[in-house]
Amino acid sequence: MNDDSRDFRRHLRQTMSLPAVMIWSRLKGRHADTPRFRREHPIGPYFADFYCAKAALVIEIDGASHGQGNRPARDEVRDAWMQARGLEIVRILAADVLHDPDDIVEGMLNLAKARIRERRGG
After folding, report:
1. Which of 19, 32, 55, 103 has a beta carbon 3.0–4.6 Å from 112's, enabling a disulfide?
2. Which residues make Cβ contacts (< 8 Å) with residue 108, sequence separation at least 6?
């Protein structure tokens, strides 16, 4: 990672949206037996809101702007690029996170565990 992308990642981590902060605050203190997620993780030319390497899982938190302008088309291109590299992308509405962040995090962890089992062939 070059200095520019490192600086940009730092900026993203410092300016996370409220729904992303709510998720991160619940993920960062997890026990060793739960899947590990990284926040604002670089993947090629993109940054994933949350990424679980063992599960090859990308979680994106979509606010209202994701439905405006050229954003849906850009998200499609980004998702296709990641899927071509074997990653699963799950998009979660920010409003759903605000409504029940604990349920969202539990779902993320369950999906990651299932993907890890699947990737191990069991």
Report:
1. 55
2. 23, 27, 37, 50, 59, 90
Domain positions in the chain are 3-120
Contact of 53 with 20, CB cutoff 8 Å: no
- For the domain made up of 3-120, the CATH class stated in words is alpha beta
pLDDT at 72: 86
User: Would the pLDDT of 42 be above 90?
Assistant: yes
- The mean per-residue pLDDT over the stretch 46-73 comes to 86
pTM for the complete prediction? Answer: 0.83
Sign of CA dihedral 26, 29, 33, 39: positive
With vertex at residue 59, the alpha carbon angle to CA 68 and CA 70, rounded to the nearest 5 degrees, is 20
H, E, C per residue of the chain: CCHHHHHHHHHHHHCCCHHHHHHHHHHCCCCCCCCCCEEEEEECCEEEEEEECCCCEEEEEECHHHHCCCHHHHHHHHHHHHHCCCCEEEEEEHHHHHHCHHHHHHHHHHHHHHHHHHHHCC
